[in-house]
Amino acid sequence: MAIAELNLVGMSGQGAVQTGEVLSRAVADEEKFVSMNVYPGTRARSAPVIIFIKISDKPGLASCANYNPTEVIVFQEELLETVRHSTHEVVEDAIGLMRRGTLVVNTTRAPQELSVPFDFEGTIATVDATGIAEKYLNRIPPPVGLTLLGLYAAATGRFQIDELKPHITGHFPGRVGELNAQAAQEAFEAACVWRGATTEIDRTPPIRRSVNPTDLPEFYQFDRYDPLPGFTQGSPWVWRDKVPVCVDEECICKGLCISEVVCPDATGFIVREGLGEGVQGYRIDVDYCRGCGLCVEVCVGDAITMVPENEVLSEKPNYEGVTVTPFRTREKGAK
Amino acid sequence: MKAVEANSDRRVVLTGNKAAAEALHMARIKVLCFFPIGPSDEVGEELSRMIGRGQHDASIIDLANERSVMNAQLVATQAGVRCSFATNSEGLLFAVQQLIFASYARVPIVITVAHRALEPPAVVRTDDMDTLMYRDIHWMHYHCENSQDVFDTTLQAYHVSEDHEVLLPAFVTYDGWEVSHNAHPVELPKQEEVDEFLPPWQLPEGLDFLKTNFAEYYSTEHRMSGYGYVDVDREYMERRHQLDQALNVTAKAKVLKAHEKYQNLVGRGYGGLMEPYRTEDAEVVLLTMGSFSATARLAVDMLREEGMPVGLMKLRLFRPFPGTELVEAFRGMKVIVTLDRNVIWALWSELRSAFFGQPGPPVILGRIAGLGGRDVTYYDIAQMLEEGLSAVAGKQVEPQRWHFHVSKSRNSVPLPQVFERGWNQP
Q: Can you tell me the distance from the alpha carbon of B366 to that of B338, in angstroms, rounded to the nearest whole number?
């Protein structure tokens, strides 16, 4: 009874569940028994989603989480930070309990440059899956999961890339499947694999600064939860690279974008003053925006566009202390 | 691609929801009653995808809410059409009046339920409370362990419910996320085998509502005869008694028969009402149902390797509760540990009722764990079994306990070798 444990750690919307299913099919093809268990997060986009996969030669696999993972696929490099800062227990366990095996990470960096937040021995493989997925699939957030399977195939050699591709096209018939298969192929070819890697963590105790809520301006004294690398550790939503921007003249509906059924964190608020008669607009509180892009999808009047963060933010918010509201819309009339 | 292609190789990887959809497809349902609610929405979505692709021939009825949809399901079944509906938690709460109607009117509907904890708060993950709160309204409750179990049980549920001596509605339940989104290999039988096992649903004689003489049907006499209409204390009590007998006597026998028939056809079985695992010469047995059983098997294996006499009894049916069968199966065992995923101590109390008045009953320890989808590992279950063993040794053990902790390792004994080795490092 040898059970292998594999974790996929991603954010919701990145295709973790579909990736798990494709991977399960590919593994089951080798006459193995496979069990895929989903940790669904908090049902919001950009909440963490973890897929626990167990592989065995015998039927009857447990449906609990994995606590001895030997292979981990991390969909976003920043998720590794959750281990270092102990911000999300389930994510932390899914990655941080690993000590050896194969670590597959989506990052622009080479495996040697990666800062692994635990003592690790084995293979580290990286590729810029976000870039590849964006190239083939125009969708926010980029669905990197199936792309990463190409890297996984290169890193482990568990199955050939040619064996994998029919499963992708079988799971997503038509053009979507083909594009995903191409992305996986490109990731397979561009894979950076470091075998025999050994990393050790820096054991100096981290300096943790915390924000005293009473120091914040009144606007920020809400009772907000902070599930991912927090306030004190750089951007609250490390996953985000674009933020929504609303052009007031195009805004015609009554705020579907910021309603609580759309916006995962209800980050928007209405602005009526100073916009002319009958015109209203919405501002996004970028401190809490995850950049999920749902508001763009539901926008009736083409008012909202996703703009790279560094273009639109007047200055990087100072997350270590008092925060300013750093939004700035485009000038009126500009498209 | 060989595992994905339908009809060529019948071993496919399916999530629990997709396995349910596949079973409903092979059961040739004619009406898909659909109102989405997670985590069981995938059943209806998968079936409507099949209908859209032309693989399956059925009409979709999607109405404003679960209550209307379930009314449609009741009416369609009364008209002699097999149909399906998948819902859970709040959806079932909305349709509770229809649930009670269905059993009294003896409409053999089957509802697929992927458990989800009841709100508030908005818990997305699983516990059993959403169907167990309907344990006393004469529905059959099946609890499934994995996708394969879901597939087989759905077919068997239709077979039993539509039997003219049973005519009872049934829940086919499985844990949300942990089974509903848990992908497992499933061996699918051939369509001919399913057709042989599950012929089209035939209305009993005299129950064809489409050929009803409505003058007679709406006459006072008919309306006073029960079946959901006005009854001025003429037959109500008799019909309730019939219902009780149908559930607790007839259905129990029919479940065993259906299971045997299915096993002969397909070559795969789960032991009818319950499935023992390594219970021979066991002193401590864990009684549980649903996805816990899969985890518990590993725990039992782990302890058996260390020479501890432990076993597992997986309950397939909560209603009808196989009390006398369990008493028979547990004869000679010293401690039974029940593991519930609900706050009403369902298994614990039912088992104690069954043992009441029996000579030399075992010690029955109640444990509640995994509420709201909290993880339960094999270390947790091993700990519960070890508590049972210490009770055998005469130590004082809490009779009822809520197990909150998630054990990620087992410190008392070294880890089995299997966990030390990676699967790519033979």
A: 5
Domains of chain A (ranges; CATH) run: 4-199 (3.40.920.10), 213-312 (3.30.70.20)
Average pLDDT, chain A: 75
Write out chain A residues lying below 8 Å of B12, CB-based.
Answer: 25, 28
Contact assignment for A35 to B376 by CB distance below 8 Å: no
Alpha carbon distance, N-terminus to C-terminus of chain B: 26
Stretch B283-301: mean pLDDT: 93
For residues A295 and B70, the model is more confident at B70
**B360-407 tens-digit pLDDT:** 899 999 999 988 888 888 888 999 999 999 999 999 998 998 888 778
Which residues on chain B are in Cβ contact (under 8 Å) with A61?
184, 294, 298
Angle at CA A196, nearest 5°, toward A195 and A197?
90
pLDDT in tens, B370-379: 888 888 888 8
Residues B33/B48, Cβ–Cβ less than 8 Å: no
Query: Could you tell me if A25 lies within 8 Å of chain B, comparing CB atoms?
Result: yes
- Between positions 43 and 62 of A, the ones with CB within 8 A of B are 43, 55, 59-62
pTM for the full predicted model: 0.77
Contact status, residue B402 vs residue B370, Cβ threshold 8 Å = no
Q: Is A190 left (phi over 0), alpha (psi -120 to 50) or beta?
A: alpha
Q: Which residues of B touch A158 (CB under 8 A)?
A: 424
Select the residue from A64, A158, A164 to test the B interface by mutation, using most B Cβ atoms within 10 A. Answer: A64
- Please tell me the predicted confidence (pLDDT) of residue B210: 59
Rounded Cα distance, A166 and B357, in Å: 61
> CB of A36 within 8 Å of any CB in chain B?
yes
| Distance between CA atoms of residues B68 and B94, nearest Å | 9
Domains of chain B: 1-272 (3.40.50.970), 274-420 (3.40.50.920)
Out of A217-231, A312-326, B259-273, the most confident range is B259-273
Give the Cα separation of A4 and A34 in Å (integer): 9
- Asked whether the beta carbons of residue A166 and residue B11 sit closer than 8 angstroms, the reply is no
Tell which phi-psi region holds residue B94, choosing left (phi > 0), alpha (psi between -120 and 50) or beta: alpha
Rounded CA-CA distance B406/B379 in Å is: 8
Across the range A102-120, mean pLDDT stands at 89
DSSP string across A249-300 = GG--SSSTTTSTTT-TT--EEEE-TTS-TT--EEEE-TTT-----HHHHH-S
Residues in B closer than 8 angstroms to A167, CB to CB, are: 1, 4
